[in-house]
Structure formats: structure tokens, C-alpha cells
Amino acid sequence: MPSRLVSSEAGEHLGETCVPEVVFPAGNSDFRAVRNRCAQACREFNNTPEDADPEMRSQKWLDIVRPDRDRSEDGPAVTHDLTFANPSLKAKTPFVKPPVWIDYGVRLHVGGSTFINRDCKIMDTPVADIVIGEGCNIGPNCVIVGVKRKWRLP
């Protein structure tokens, strides 16, 4: 189902640059299945020790953001320590300290040289990308919201 983009009247009135509102049926069974799969992948990632083998941590991250990938193409994990020792190497997956909570994951793109600290929550959608580039440092308890929910106030 295509997304519907709507501008915020308040933002236009104030002269702000607005991110379009993304509307999608979150209760749809397909979207619910993707959300449930991502929740399970996040639980598995969060239960992986921080000092676990880099290959395992990388695969657990990719299970969140690229669940349908061809696992034979994962290749060896390049850790951030290795990139400092050899600048010609490039990390494929970010260094993420658990716990991390992501709603869908499939449209989340994070640069391999990015660091995400503990308790990051990303409220993403299955219909719009969230892109976090290379070399970003995301502090603890950060919340990234890529969706706007409609609220009805009394």
C-alpha cells in the first residue's frame, strides 16, 4: 500500500521546514508480522553479550535491518578497532551497545562507522527510510522518531 504524504499546517504557518507526515496502516497483518519479527531480532541482539564475537554481533544486527539477506554474502566482520589499526578497512555494521529497540528495521540504514550507545529507540516505518550516515555518534537514551502518529485530544 503506498504511503500518503501530508504537510503539517502548523509548520507551514511558522515557516518551518517540515518533514512530510507518513501515514500507513500499522495494524495491517503484513506490517504487524514485520514488527513482530523485528522485536524478536532486537531481543536476540540485546541478549548477545557486548564482548561477543564480532561476527555474531554483526549478524545479529543484520538480522534486525536486513533479515532477508543472503547470509553467505555477510563476509567477515570488520570491527572498529581494526579500522583504527588499518584505515583501509571499512566496518560494514555499526557498533551498537545493547539494548536497542527498533519497530520495523527494514528501512533503517546505518553507516558502518557509526556508534549507537545504550537504550537507543528508533520508531521507524516499513514505508519510509531512516538514514544515519557514516561517523555518527548517537548518545545513550536517544529516541529517533521517523513516524508521526495522529492523536485526538478531547
Automatic annotation (TrEMBL):
Alphabetized InterPro entries for the sequence: Hexapeptide_acetyltransf (IPR051159), Trimer_LpxA-like_sf (IPR011004)
Gene Ontology terms for molecular function: O-acyltransferase activity
Superkingdom as given in the UniProt entry: Eukaryota
Name of the molecule in the record: Mannose-1-phosphate guanylyltransferase
Protein source organism: Canariomyces notabilis
